[in-house]
Amino acid sequence: MAMNPIVKAQLGTFIKMNPNATYSESDFFEVMSIFSLENGILGENIDPFRAHLKGDEFGIDGVAISIQGTLCTDVDEAEDILSVGKKHTSEFRFYQSKTSDNLDYGNVSKFLDAVYDFFTSQKFITGTQLENLIEVKDKIYEVAAKTSPSLRCFYCTTGSGQVSDMIQKLIDANKDRLAELNIFEEIHIECIGAKVIQNGFRSATN
User: Fold this and answer.
1) Which of 19, 38, 78, 185 keeps 20 to 30 A from 142, CA to CA?
2) Structure pTM?
3) Bridge partners of residue 70, in order along the sequence
4) Is the separation of the CB atoms in 186 and 150 below 8 Å?
């Protein structure tokens, strides 16, 4: 099936706003999903290209680590913020985006495995970007803030985002597995469809 026509038009606009010869249409959709959710739905104001992971071997397309509302991509940025005051709030936000109408069980599973791995054995971690993000994560936990960080995972498609019973069970099992680590204040795992991306894009560009 062809991509949702509204999302396709918005993607065309987004590409015009951010010309980049090295990015494919699916790369741009990954960044646009981050942009729509971060800046349109969550009310943040980040450069989505800084949260986007280059390459696709890890099962995650984007990671936004926010400390005191500021996106941190390396340990120096994190230390600058954490060195001031005591009551720091942090949030980890993970993104996976597919230009497909349906939620694929295998891809959702791979995404959630990769998120779990980020906080545990790190056997999937490759490349400087992810290594830097691991250092930011470690620094957040070193500081022992008054509240634990929150975790939000967004799996985005250009379809309805409708979750089957089987995928809901997968999400619930992963929430339990992540909760057992006892390192998060709260955990959200959401499957996002075209409508939310459309509305987020409108909010972020208005």
Assistant:
1) 38
2) 0.95
3) 67
4) yes
